[in-house]
Amino acid sequence: MTFLERLGLHRKELRAWAMYDWANSAMVTIIVTAVFPIYFSKVAGAGLAPAVATQHLATATTLGLVLIAVLSPIMGAIADRAGIKKRLLGLALGVGVLTVGLMFFIERGDWKLAAALFVLANIAVNASFVCYDSFLPHVARKHEMDRVSSAGYALGYIGGGLLLAFALAWIQRPEWFGLPSGTDLTPSQQTLPTRLSFLAVAVWWTVFSIPLFRHVREPPATGDGRVDLGGAFRELGHTFRRLGRFKQAVLMLVAFLVYNDGIGTIIRMAGIYGAELGIDSGRLIAAIMITQFVGVPFAFLFGMGANRIGAKRAIFGGLLVYGGITIFGYYMTTATHFLILALLVGMVQGGTQALSRSLFASMIPKQRSAEFFGFFAVVEKFAGILGPLMFSLMINATGSSRNAILAVIAFFLV
Protein backbone atom coordinates (compact mmCIF):
# COMPACT_ATOMS: atom_id res chain seq x y z
CA MET A 1 0.00 0.00 0.00
CA THR A 2 1.45 3.38 -1.05
CA PHE A 3 1.68 6.40 1.26
CA LEU A 4 -1.28 8.11 -0.42
CA GLU A 5 -3.31 4.90 -0.15
CA ARG A 6 -2.66 4.84 3.59
CA LEU A 7 -3.93 8.43 3.79
CA GLY A 8 -6.97 7.75 1.61
CA LEU A 9 -5.89 10.23 -1.07
CA HIS A 10 -4.61 7.90 -3.78
CA ARG A 11 -7.07 8.79 -6.57
CA LYS A 12 -7.85 12.15 -8.13
CA GLU A 13 -11.55 12.04 -7.25
CA LEU A 14 -10.73 11.22 -3.61
CA ARG A 15 -8.38 14.20 -3.33
CA ALA A 16 -10.96 16.43 -5.03
CA TRP A 17 -13.70 15.27 -2.65
CA ALA A 18 -11.52 15.77 0.44
CA MET A 19 -10.54 19.27 -0.68
CA TYR A 20 -14.09 20.46 -0.02
CA ASP A 21 -13.40 19.85 3.68
CA TRP A 22 -10.35 22.10 3.27
CA ALA A 23 -12.57 24.70 1.58
CA ASN A 24 -15.53 24.82 3.97
CA SER A 25 -13.55 24.45 7.20
CA ALA A 26 -12.28 28.01 6.84
CA MET A 27 -15.89 29.18 7.04
CA VAL A 28 -16.63 26.99 10.06
CA THR A 29 -13.46 28.02 11.88
CA ILE A 30 -13.61 31.77 11.26
CA ILE A 31 -17.33 32.49 10.92
CA VAL A 32 -18.87 29.95 13.28
CA THR A 33 -16.14 29.45 15.88
CA ALA A 34 -13.37 31.99 16.31
CA VAL A 35 -13.71 35.43 14.71
CA PHE A 36 -17.28 36.32 13.79
CA PRO A 37 -18.82 35.58 17.24
CA ILE A 38 -16.37 38.04 18.83
CA TYR A 39 -17.03 40.60 16.07
CA PHE A 40 -20.78 40.19 16.58
CA SER A 41 -20.49 40.79 20.30
CA LYS A 42 -18.06 43.72 20.24
CA VAL A 43 -18.89 45.50 16.96
CA ALA A 44 -22.21 44.47 15.43
CA GLY A 45 -23.75 44.27 18.89
CA ALA A 46 -22.20 47.53 20.12
CA GLY A 47 -24.78 49.35 22.20
CA LEU A 48 -26.31 46.09 23.41
CA ALA A 49 -25.55 44.57 26.78
CA PRO A 50 -23.02 41.72 26.33
CA ALA A 51 -25.56 39.16 27.53
CA VAL A 52 -28.15 40.47 25.05
CA ALA A 53 -25.67 40.30 22.15
CA THR A 54 -24.77 36.72 23.12
CA GLN A 55 -28.46 35.85 23.31
CA HIS A 56 -29.11 37.25 19.81
CA LEU A 57 -26.24 35.22 18.36
CA ALA A 58 -27.43 32.08 20.16
CA THR A 59 -30.94 32.64 18.78
CA ALA A 60 -29.56 33.07 15.25
CA THR A 61 -27.53 29.88 15.64
CA THR A 62 -30.54 27.91 16.87
CA LEU A 63 -32.78 29.25 14.09
CA GLY A 64 -30.26 28.24 11.44
CA LEU A 65 -29.86 24.74 12.89
CA VAL A 66 -33.62 24.16 13.14
CA LEU A 67 -34.22 25.30 9.56
CA ILE A 68 -31.47 23.11 8.14
CA ALA A 69 -32.71 20.15 10.19
CA VAL A 70 -36.13 20.56 8.56
CA LEU A 71 -34.74 21.09 5.05
CA SER A 72 -31.98 18.44 5.00
CA PRO A 73 -34.06 15.26 4.43
CA ILE A 74 -36.16 16.97 1.74
CA MET A 75 -33.09 18.31 -0.02
CA GLY A 76 -31.42 14.90 0.19
CA ALA A 77 -34.42 13.13 -1.32
CA ILE A 78 -34.58 15.64 -4.19
CA ALA A 79 -30.83 15.32 -4.81
CA ASP A 80 -31.11 11.52 -5.12
CA ARG A 81 -34.28 11.44 -7.24
CA ALA A 82 -33.21 14.15 -9.68
CA GLY A 83 -29.49 13.37 -9.72
CA ILE A 84 -28.53 16.95 -8.85
CA LYS A 85 -26.20 16.56 -5.86
CA LYS A 86 -23.52 18.73 -7.45
CA ARG A 87 -26.00 21.41 -8.51
CA LEU A 88 -27.52 21.61 -5.03
CA LEU A 89 -24.04 21.71 -3.53
CA GLY A 90 -23.19 24.53 -5.94
CA LEU A 91 -26.35 26.41 -4.95
CA ALA A 92 -25.54 26.06 -1.24
CA LEU A 93 -21.95 27.13 -1.93
CA GLY A 94 -23.12 30.20 -3.86
CA VAL A 95 -25.49 31.31 -1.11
CA GLY A 96 -22.84 30.69 1.54
CA VAL A 97 -20.09 32.57 -0.28
CA LEU A 98 -22.41 35.51 -1.00
CA THR A 99 -23.60 35.84 2.60
CA VAL A 100 -20.10 35.53 4.04
CA GLY A 101 -18.83 38.10 1.55
CA LEU A 102 -21.61 40.50 2.55
CA MET A 103 -20.40 40.29 6.16
CA PHE A 104 -17.64 42.67 5.05
CA PHE A 105 -20.25 45.47 5.14
CA ILE A 106 -21.32 44.85 8.76
CA GLU A 107 -20.46 47.95 10.76
CA ARG A 108 -20.88 49.00 14.37
CA GLY A 109 -24.43 48.42 15.60
CA ASP A 110 -25.52 46.34 12.57
CA TRP A 111 -26.52 43.35 14.71
CA LYS A 112 -29.74 42.65 12.79
CA LEU A 113 -27.88 42.43 9.47
CA ALA A 114 -25.15 40.36 11.12
CA ALA A 115 -27.66 37.93 12.62
CA ALA A 116 -29.52 37.53 9.30
CA LEU A 117 -26.33 36.85 7.35
CA PHE A 118 -25.12 34.44 10.03
CA VAL A 119 -28.38 32.43 9.79
CA LEU A 120 -28.14 32.24 5.99
CA ALA A 121 -24.45 31.30 6.06
CA ASN A 122 -25.13 28.54 8.59
CA ILE A 123 -27.99 27.14 6.52
CA ALA A 124 -25.85 27.24 3.38
CA VAL A 125 -22.78 25.50 4.80
CA ASN A 126 -24.83 22.80 6.50
CA ALA A 127 -26.91 22.23 3.36
CA SER A 128 -23.69 21.76 1.43
CA PHE A 129 -22.60 19.11 3.95
CA VAL A 130 -25.66 16.97 3.12
CA CYS A 131 -24.66 16.79 -0.55
CA TYR A 132 -20.93 16.60 0.17
CA ASP A 133 -21.20 13.73 2.65
CA SER A 134 -23.52 11.84 0.30
CA PHE A 135 -20.73 11.62 -2.30
CA LEU A 136 -18.58 9.52 0.08
CA PRO A 137 -20.04 6.07 -0.80
CA HIS A 138 -19.80 6.99 -4.49
CA VAL A 139 -16.17 8.17 -4.60
CA ALA A 140 -14.75 5.64 -2.11
CA ARG A 141 -14.98 1.86 -2.14
CA LYS A 142 -16.36 0.32 1.03
CA HIS A 143 -12.95 -0.66 2.41
CA GLU A 144 -11.62 2.87 1.71
CA MET A 145 -14.37 4.91 3.38
CA ASP A 146 -12.77 5.23 6.81
CA ARG A 147 -9.45 6.46 5.42
CA VAL A 148 -11.08 8.81 2.90
CA SER A 149 -13.49 10.33 5.42
CA SER A 150 -10.63 10.84 7.90
CA ALA A 151 -8.51 12.43 5.17
CA GLY A 152 -11.30 14.93 4.57
CA TYR A 153 -11.33 15.91 8.23
CA ALA A 154 -7.53 16.16 8.30
CA LEU A 155 -7.48 18.47 5.28
CA GLY A 156 -10.27 20.46 6.91
CA TYR A 157 -8.11 21.01 9.98
CA ILE A 158 -5.24 22.21 7.79
CA GLY A 159 -7.38 24.52 5.66
CA GLY A 160 -9.31 26.00 8.56
CA GLY A 161 -6.19 26.37 10.68
CA LEU A 162 -4.11 28.05 7.96
CA LEU A 163 -6.66 30.71 7.10
CA LEU A 164 -7.39 31.31 10.79
CA ALA A 165 -3.66 31.83 11.42
CA PHE A 166 -3.42 34.34 8.56
CA ALA A 167 -6.60 36.12 9.69
CA LEU A 168 -5.40 36.42 13.27
CA ALA A 169 -2.05 37.74 12.01
CA TRP A 170 -3.57 40.63 10.06
CA ILE A 171 -6.13 41.33 12.81
CA GLN A 172 -3.43 41.49 15.51
CA ARG A 173 -0.69 43.08 13.37
CA PRO A 174 -2.43 45.00 10.54
CA GLU A 175 0.67 47.12 9.88
CA TRP A 176 2.52 44.00 8.66
CA PHE A 177 0.05 43.78 5.78
CA GLY A 178 -0.19 47.47 4.92
CA LEU A 179 -3.54 47.86 6.67
CA PRO A 180 -4.51 50.90 8.78
CA SER A 181 -3.06 50.73 12.28
CA GLY A 182 -2.52 52.97 15.28
CA THR A 183 -4.87 54.89 17.55
CA ASP A 184 -6.18 57.65 15.26
CA LEU A 185 -8.45 55.47 13.14
CA THR A 186 -12.08 55.74 12.10
CA PRO A 187 -14.43 52.96 13.30
CA SER A 188 -14.44 51.52 9.78
CA GLN A 189 -10.63 51.45 9.66
CA GLN A 190 -10.47 49.78 13.08
CA THR A 191 -12.66 46.89 11.92
CA LEU A 192 -11.19 46.58 8.41
CA PRO A 193 -8.77 43.70 9.18
CA THR A 194 -11.55 41.61 10.72
CA ARG A 195 -13.96 42.37 7.89
CA LEU A 196 -11.27 41.41 5.37
CA SER A 197 -11.09 38.00 7.05
CA PHE A 198 -14.74 37.48 6.06
CA LEU A 199 -13.90 38.27 2.42
CA ALA A 200 -10.93 35.90 2.65
CA VAL A 201 -13.27 33.11 3.75
CA ALA A 202 -15.53 33.74 0.74
CA VAL A 203 -12.60 33.54 -1.68
CA TRP A 204 -11.03 30.52 0.06
CA TRP A 205 -14.32 28.61 0.15
CA THR A 206 -14.91 29.29 -3.56
CA VAL A 207 -11.44 28.51 -4.91
CA PHE A 208 -10.85 25.26 -3.03
CA SER A 209 -14.31 23.93 -3.90
CA ILE A 210 -13.43 23.88 -7.61
CA PRO A 211 -11.67 20.44 -7.59
CA LEU A 212 -14.85 18.71 -6.39
CA PHE A 213 -16.91 20.16 -9.24
CA ARG A 214 -14.23 19.27 -11.78
CA HIS A 215 -13.29 15.75 -10.75
CA VAL A 216 -16.19 14.19 -8.79
CA ARG A 217 -18.88 12.67 -10.98
CA GLU A 218 -22.60 13.15 -10.39
CA PRO A 219 -24.08 9.80 -9.27
CA PRO A 220 -27.02 8.51 -11.33
CA ALA A 221 -30.52 9.69 -10.43
CA THR A 222 -32.81 7.28 -8.58
CA GLY A 223 -35.92 8.84 -10.14
CA ASP A 224 -36.82 10.27 -13.52
CA GLY A 225 -34.35 13.14 -13.29
CA ARG A 226 -36.99 15.80 -12.59
CA VAL A 227 -37.08 18.04 -9.53
CA ASP A 228 -40.31 16.77 -7.99
CA LEU A 229 -41.03 18.07 -4.49
CA GLY A 230 -44.09 15.85 -4.11
CA GLY A 231 -42.09 12.83 -5.18
CA ALA A 232 -39.39 13.72 -2.66
CA PHE A 233 -41.95 13.79 0.16
CA ARG A 234 -43.38 10.45 -0.98
CA GLU A 235 -39.88 8.97 -1.03
CA LEU A 236 -39.24 10.23 2.50
CA GLY A 237 -42.48 8.65 3.70
CA HIS A 238 -41.54 5.41 1.98
CA THR A 239 -38.15 5.46 3.73
CA PHE A 240 -39.72 6.04 7.16
CA ARG A 241 -41.95 3.02 6.63
CA ARG A 242 -38.95 0.88 5.69
CA LEU A 243 -36.52 2.02 8.38
CA GLY A 244 -36.78 -1.39 10.01
CA ARG A 245 -34.77 -2.78 7.10
CA PHE A 246 -31.84 -0.56 8.06
CA LYS A 247 -31.58 -1.39 11.76
CA GLN A 248 -27.83 -0.85 11.92
CA ALA A 249 -28.15 2.61 10.38
CA VAL A 250 -30.96 3.54 12.79
CA LEU A 251 -28.96 2.32 15.80
CA MET A 252 -25.98 4.28 14.51
CA LEU A 253 -28.10 7.45 14.32
CA VAL A 254 -29.33 6.97 17.90
CA ALA A 255 -25.80 6.36 19.20
CA PHE A 256 -24.48 9.31 17.20
CA LEU A 257 -27.21 11.54 18.64
CA VAL A 258 -26.02 10.74 22.17
CA TYR A 259 -22.23 10.78 21.91
CA ASN A 260 -22.05 13.62 19.38
CA ASP A 261 -24.07 15.70 21.84
CA GLY A 262 -21.29 15.12 24.36
CA ILE A 263 -18.60 16.02 21.83
CA GLY A 264 -20.46 19.17 20.79
CA THR A 265 -20.99 20.22 24.41
CA ILE A 266 -17.28 20.00 25.16
CA ILE A 267 -16.43 22.01 22.04
CA ARG A 268 -19.04 24.72 22.69
CA MET A 269 -18.61 25.03 26.45
CA ALA A 270 -14.81 24.74 26.69
CA GLY A 271 -14.22 28.39 25.81
CA ILE A 272 -16.84 29.64 28.27
CA TYR A 273 -15.47 27.36 30.98
CA GLY A 274 -11.92 28.52 30.28
CA ALA A 275 -12.92 32.19 30.43
CA GLU A 276 -14.68 31.52 33.74
CA LEU A 277 -11.42 30.14 35.11
CA GLY A 278 -9.72 33.42 34.16
CA ILE A 279 -7.86 32.18 31.07
CA ASP A 280 -7.15 35.15 28.77
CA SER A 281 -8.36 35.40 25.17
CA GLY A 282 -4.85 34.85 23.79
CA ARG A 283 -4.62 31.44 25.44
CA LEU A 284 -8.16 30.60 24.30
CA ILE A 285 -7.20 31.35 20.69
CA ALA A 286 -3.99 29.34 21.13
CA ALA A 287 -6.13 26.41 22.28
CA ILE A 288 -8.20 26.63 19.09
CA MET A 289 -5.01 26.58 16.99
CA ILE A 290 -3.65 23.59 18.93
CA THR A 291 -6.87 21.67 18.33
CA GLN A 292 -6.76 22.50 14.61
CA PHE A 293 -3.21 21.36 13.92
CA VAL A 294 -3.01 18.42 16.33
CA GLY A 295 -6.17 17.15 14.66
CA VAL A 296 -4.39 16.71 11.31
CA PRO A 297 -2.11 13.71 12.05
CA PHE A 298 -4.60 12.13 14.44
CA ALA A 299 -7.44 12.26 11.91
CA PHE A 300 -5.19 10.36 9.47
CA LEU A 301 -4.19 7.93 12.25
CA PHE A 302 -7.83 7.22 13.09
CA GLY A 303 -8.47 6.36 9.44
CA MET A 304 -5.48 4.01 9.34
CA GLY A 305 -6.42 2.50 12.70
CA ALA A 306 -9.97 1.84 11.55
CA ASN A 307 -8.52 -0.05 8.61
CA ARG A 308 -6.88 -2.43 11.11
CA ILE A 309 -9.35 -2.72 14.00
CA GLY A 310 -12.60 -1.46 12.47
CA ALA A 311 -14.39 1.88 12.68
CA LYS A 312 -16.56 0.90 15.67
CA ARG A 313 -13.59 0.02 17.88
CA ALA A 314 -11.74 3.16 16.83
CA ILE A 315 -14.79 5.29 17.69
CA PHE A 316 -15.09 3.54 21.07
CA GLY A 317 -11.44 4.37 21.72
CA GLY A 318 -12.05 8.02 20.90
CA LEU A 319 -15.08 8.17 23.20
CA LEU A 320 -13.00 6.63 25.99
CA VAL A 321 -10.53 9.50 25.62
CA TYR A 322 -13.42 11.97 25.68
CA GLY A 323 -14.50 10.45 28.99
CA GLY A 324 -11.00 11.10 30.30
CA ILE A 325 -11.18 14.67 28.97
CA THR A 326 -14.28 15.41 31.06
CA ILE A 327 -12.53 14.10 34.20
CA PHE A 328 -9.41 16.15 33.39
CA GLY A 329 -11.61 19.22 32.82
CA TYR A 330 -13.11 18.80 36.28
CA TYR A 331 -9.66 19.16 37.89
CA MET A 332 -8.38 21.84 35.49
CA THR A 333 -7.14 25.05 37.19
CA THR A 334 -4.49 26.71 35.01
CA ALA A 335 -3.99 27.94 31.44
CA THR A 336 -1.48 25.12 30.91
CA HIS A 337 -4.16 22.61 31.84
CA PHE A 338 -6.49 24.24 29.31
CA LEU A 339 -3.90 23.90 26.53
CA ILE A 340 -3.44 20.22 27.44
CA LEU A 341 -7.21 19.84 27.24
CA ALA A 342 -7.14 21.36 23.74
CA LEU A 343 -4.38 18.91 22.78
CA LEU A 344 -6.45 15.94 23.96
CA VAL A 345 -9.56 17.18 22.13
CA GLY A 346 -7.55 17.64 18.94
CA MET A 347 -6.34 14.04 19.19
CA VAL A 348 -9.85 12.54 19.01
CA GLN A 349 -12.31 15.14 17.70
CA GLY A 350 -11.75 14.78 13.96
CA GLY A 351 -11.17 11.03 14.04
CA THR A 352 -14.37 10.14 15.90
CA GLN A 353 -16.51 12.39 13.71
CA ALA A 354 -14.86 11.24 10.48
CA LEU A 355 -15.37 7.58 11.33
CA SER A 356 -18.96 8.26 12.37
CA ARG A 357 -19.53 9.61 8.86
CA SER A 358 -17.85 6.68 7.12
CA LEU A 359 -19.48 4.05 9.36
CA PHE A 360 -22.92 5.47 8.59
CA ALA A 361 -22.08 5.63 4.87
CA SER A 362 -21.25 1.92 4.92
CA MET A 363 -24.68 1.07 6.38
CA ILE A 364 -26.97 2.89 3.93
CA PRO A 365 -28.11 2.16 0.37
CA LYS A 366 -25.58 3.83 -1.90
CA GLN A 367 -28.16 5.06 -4.41
CA ARG A 368 -30.05 7.00 -1.71
CA SER A 369 -27.06 8.41 0.13
CA ALA A 370 -28.21 12.06 0.06
CA GLU A 371 -31.58 11.18 1.57
CA PHE A 372 -29.97 9.20 4.40
CA PHE A 373 -27.34 11.87 5.02
CA GLY A 374 -30.25 14.28 5.28
CA PHE A 375 -31.40 12.23 8.29
CA PHE A 376 -27.80 12.22 9.54
CA ALA A 377 -27.81 16.03 9.36
CA VAL A 378 -31.04 16.20 11.37
CA VAL A 379 -29.51 14.08 14.13
CA GLU A 380 -26.29 16.08 14.01
CA LYS A 381 -28.13 19.39 14.45
CA PHE A 382 -30.44 18.24 17.23
CA ALA A 383 -27.47 16.63 18.99
CA GLY A 384 -26.56 20.14 20.09
CA ILE A 385 -29.61 20.59 22.31
CA LEU A 386 -29.42 18.16 25.24
CA GLY A 387 -25.79 18.71 26.23
CA PRO A 388 -25.88 22.50 26.73
CA LEU A 389 -29.26 22.10 28.46
CA MET A 390 -27.81 19.57 30.91
CA PHE A 391 -24.74 21.78 31.36
CA SER A 392 -26.98 24.72 32.29
CA LEU A 393 -29.15 22.63 34.63
CA MET A 394 -26.08 21.25 36.43
CA ILE A 395 -24.74 24.77 36.99
CA ASN A 396 -28.11 25.85 38.38
CA ALA A 397 -28.33 22.76 40.60
CA THR A 398 -24.76 22.74 41.92
CA GLY A 399 -23.55 26.29 41.33
CA SER A 400 -20.41 24.92 39.69
CA SER A 401 -19.26 24.63 36.07
CA ARG A 402 -16.82 21.93 37.23
CA ASN A 403 -19.68 19.61 38.13
CA ALA A 404 -21.37 20.47 34.83
CA ILE A 405 -18.30 19.58 32.75
CA LEU A 406 -17.92 16.30 34.65
CA ALA A 407 -21.57 15.41 34.01
CA VAL A 408 -20.89 15.40 30.25
CA ILE A 409 -19.21 12.01 30.75
CA ALA A 410 -22.72 10.50 30.80
CA PHE A 411 -23.01 11.04 27.02
CA PHE A 412 -19.94 8.84 26.42
CA LEU A 413 -20.94 6.08 28.85
CA VAL A 414 -24.46 5.60 27.45
Put the structure in a nutshell.
The chain has 414 residues and is mainly alpha-helical. Helix content is 80%, strand content 0%.
Q: Which homologous superfamily in CATH is the superfamily?
A: MFS general substrate transporter like domains
**Number of E strands:** 0
Instruction: Look at the structure and give the mean pLDDT.
Output: 89
Q: Class by helix and strand content?
A: mainly alpha
* Number of domain units: 1
Describe this structure in words.
- The protein is 80% helix and 0% strand.
- With 414 residues, it is mostly helical.
- It has a single domain (3-413), classed as MFS general substrate transporter like domains (Growth Hormone, Chain: A, Up-down Bundle).
- The two termini are 37 Å apart.
- The mean pLDDT is 89.
List keywords for this structure.
414 residues, Growth Hormone, Chain: A, globular, 0% strand
Task: Compile the SSE list and pairings.
Blueprint: H1 3-7, H2 12-34, H3 36-44, H4 50-82, H5 85-102, H6 111-134, H7 136-139, H8 145-172, H9 187-207, H10 210-215, H11 229-241, H12 247-276, H13 281-309, H14 311-331, H15 335-361, H16 369-398, H17 401-407, H18 410-413
